[in-house]
Request: fold
Amino acid sequence: MGKRDIIRTEDHIVKYLRHPVYGSRNLHMRHLHQIDSYDNRVEEQLKASGFYYVSQIGRIVSHRPTVDALVERWRPKTHTFHLPYGECTITLEDVAMILGLQTDGLPVTGSTDHSTSGLENECLAQFGVASGPNDHKGSGIKLAWFRTLKRRQHLTDQFSWGSACLAHMYRSLCRASRYDCKDMDGPLALLLVWAWIRMPTIGPLPVDTSFPLTRRWNDYQPTTEHYKNWTTSDVRRRLDDLPLDGFVWDAYSPNRVAPQVIPFDINNGANLWSATD
Reply:
């Protein structure tokens, strides 16, 4: 196996193999990593940065067959999944509800110039402090520099991390759908939980009722032994046989998610979720 055959995702290492019939890259779980905890003293900083709800998610165990079956139905030209009764996709509302990331705020973007001068200029523009030559490693900046910086800096701007997360998810799905791709990164928890919420027949039952909604499948594996034994063919067949009412379009309506469960700052993004061209 080469280095491209094994990649690290959010909480596990997975390996892609090639399916002999469909040509898909099948994910195989290799190892689970324990979730890092944080000191209570940084809770206010997490809330200010918009990552507090994400920090409460815990471990979501990946399910290779579901990821494989969804990637097979992804169409890069339209950024949608093709299902028996139409097309669907992950939206900003899904990101807000599933991960608790804010969808309103400044765009998360920056220069793609990874030269020494480019990195120095970008740090100066973003943080008001330029990194030095000893702070660089290859085309990136050493984490130690950021750790030193965060002790002196206070977050004052709010960024739309939800939009950045969704863009990353689309890009990862497009890349994974290529015939010559052997790996996939990105927020796999978002992909899986979106599928389980929207299409309950292809996922395990939720085990929690709190926010963000990803917590409902926190460490679900011990309670769903039969689900662990599903293969890609099993999930593929369930998608093929999806009934007309098998896709939940109103997944976050009051009769499905209690309004008081959703934090006010997350609901503030509803004007973006419902925007149309």
